[in-house]
Amino acid sequence: MILEKLFKRKDSQDNITEMSYRRVGISLGASWSWGVSMIATIAFMYTYGIFPALVWVIGNILAMPLFGYMKVKIRGFEKWINFIPLILFSLFIAAMAIIMNMQALLIGLGGGHDVASFHFIDNSFSVPSIIFLSLAILLFIYRYGLRGSVLSDLGYYSLQIFAVVLLAVFSIIISNFTINPNLQLITESGIKWVFPLGLLGIITGVFTDPMMWQRFEQKENQIRLSLWGGFWFGLYMTFVVLTGLFFKPTLFLGILLLVVIFALAVSTIGSATVAMQYLTKKIGVGKTTGLIIALTSIITWPYLMELGMAKIWNIYAGYRWKVVIGMIAISLIGQYLIKKESKDKIVNFMKKIKLFYEHE
């Protein structure tokens, strides 16, 4: 009886229509940040150079406003999230969000090898702790849904922006205002990476991110929402770049880095979990299936953690940008070259062969 009351979920827990654009924008900024935004920015600076990393950061910030603009300006673009292959791909993206943010927590604790941070605890303790935390987030999302995710993001974002400002300021002071001498403006591998993978791999990221689709579809003015989300995310990334330029692995900076990563990762793991429920409901297999997929992602992470953050990101980003470019090209062809009657016939045909579906 007590457990039933504790985990009973209201039907309205996924409704955020009455929340302000500013509040939902903060949730977008927190969810889009991922624990990897801090780690990846620093890792890319060291691996590819300052210039390629800045291109990646700019694409990261512009991704959300571009998504909002496309959804409004290209007729029918919003229907992509009902296309079964994209739903399945977005489930994969959500699973990667959970895995990569668990990896970010490991790096924050000093167990990863992408960024030299202070080593707090051994992997034998950090790995089960991260799994336990992720399972606790899964239970929270099961109980409180999208509303719980959006409301809690305000606290997570406040924590992440407070800690990242301190991290940037003290990184500059501790380095005596000297940019890390190990950084290069651009490396040989950075020349090859920056385009298309570096820029297109990130600027197209929002288009297949179900955490973004889920929040955007509940607000009427989507350009306004995208600008709020881009603003809060861009504010955070400004201090991330400053940190990357001056960061050195000390105990104090390591603690601040861990606080930032904790806020980022917990927010995104929760958002990804509720997004999985959103997707599995769309295809009529129920929200419980989404929780099972989230649980599977959590269990899978220990087998992938040795790959490292940058390699995991490059693997799925390499597929993602090609999928999104195809989506945009098809949408533009549909808007300017195909008549409405023909488009309706195509959609109806895809519904018949179960490629296009939305469960109400």
List unreliable stretches of 5+ residues.
Answer: none
Structural class: mainly alpha
What oligomerization state is this entry in?
A: single chain
Order of helices and strands: HHHHHHHHHHHHH
Provide a count of the helices. 13
Largest sheet: none
Q: Compute the CA-based radius of gyration.
A: 20 Å
Description:
The longest helix is centred in the middle third of the chain and has 52 residues, at 123-174. Helix 6 (123-174) crosses helix 10 and helix 6 (123-174) crosses helix 11 (287-300). Helices cover 74% and strands 0% of the residues. It has helices spanning 2-7, 21-33, 36-48, 50-73, 84-108, 123-174, 188-203, 210-216, 222-246, 251-282, 287-300, 309-336, 340-352. The chain is mainly alpha-helical and 360 residues long. It contains 13 helices and no strands.
